[in-house]
Amino acid sequence: MRYLHTMVRVADLDASLHFYCDLLGLEEMRRMENEAGRFTLVFLAAPADRARSTAERSPEVELTFNWDPQTYDGGRNFGHLAYKVADIYAACQRLMDGGVVINRPPRDGHMAFVRSPDGVSIELLQEGAALAPAEPWASMPNTGSW
User: Could you say which of 28, 35, 56, 123 is catalytic?
Assistant: First the structure.
C-alpha cells in the first residue's frame, strides 16, 4: 500500500492556489478539467517532496473545485484519503471480512471507497492497470455515501 493524496474541496480556486502555492510554497504538479462532471482537480506537492518520475509520485494535496457554487460546512470541504493497493479485490475482501462496508465497490477493477470508523472517506485505487471485472464486485451496489 502507498499513500497518494488528500483531497480538499475549495470554493474559490484562484484564492486557494494563491494560498497553497504563492503563500505556502506548494507547486502545481498537474491539473485536470472535467467538463462533464463540472469540476477541476489541481494536484499540489511540496518542492522537497517532488518525485523524479510518475512511478515515484510523492503524496499530494488534491484541490477539487466544483464549478457550480456550493457551500461547504461541517468539514465537508475535506474529501478523502487515497491509497494505491496491489490487489483492489483482495483489499476490499479483507476489509469486508473485517466488517467494513464497501460504500463504492470496485466494479471497474480500479477504484473503491470505504469509510473509517470515524466516517473519513478512504479511496482505494488499483496499482497499475485495472483488474478485469469480477463478482461479487461487478454487481454490488453502492451503499451510503463516500
Answer: 123
As a whole number of angstroms, the distance between CA 54 and CA 68 comes to 31
Concerning whether 123 is annotated as a catalytic residue, the answer is yes
Q: What is the DSSP letter of 91?
A: H
The b/e string for 52-91 (b: 16+ C-beta within 10 A; e otherwise) is eeeeebeebbbbbbeeeeeeeeeeeeebbbbbbbeebbeb
Are residues 103 and 146 in contact, defined by beta-carbon separation less than 8 angstroms? yes
* Per-residue pLDDT tens digits for 23-79: 878 899 999 999 999 999 999 988 878 765 556 678 899 999 999 988 877 666 788
